[in-house]
Specification:
Blueprint: E1 5-9, H1 13-24, E2 27-33, E3 38-44, E4 50-56, E5 71-74, H2 78-86, E6 92-96, E7 100-104, E8 110-114
Parallel strand pairs: 1-4, 5-8
Antiparallel strand pairs: 2-3, 3-4, 6-7, 7-8
């Protein structure tokens, strides 16, 4: 089995997309706006893995990061990813571990970056 993508609700799609682009080098591959105001965008890494970001224009969407532990992503250079995280006002390092770190995105969702897939 292979997970195709993970989908999360966000409060500001452009800000969140910019964070994931800067920290993890994910690029938008597709965006759609629906009649009800829902906006979705897919961002993808060089390995083909995708993250779906969704928001509703004009509505306060209650992103529920407390019900979600974290997404783990593997990067080539942990130190470089942490340096790029430090440059972002929209995210923060929650915990640095031996070969990984846990980062909080603009809506409080956490993602773990690692160099060994743990």
């Amino acid at each position: 089995m292979r997970v195709d993508h993970t989908s999360i609700w966000v409060t500001d799609l452009d800000r969140t997309e910019s964070t994931y682009n800067s920290v993890l080098d994910l690029s938008e591959t597709w965006r759609n706006v629906y009649e009800d105001g829902t906006i979705e965008a897919f961002v993808r890494g060089s390995d083909g893995q995708s993250l779906q970001l969704m928001c509703r224009d004009g509505d306060e969407v209650d992103a529920e990061p407390d019900n979600f532990r974290y997404i783990t992503v593997e990067v080539d250079d942990l130190s470089d990813a942490l340096d790029r995280t430090a440059e972002q006002d929209s995210c923060e390092v929650i915990e640095e571990l031996d070969e990984s770190a846990i980062i909080s995105d603009p809506d409080g969702y956490r993602f773990k970056i690692t160099t060994n897939g743990d």
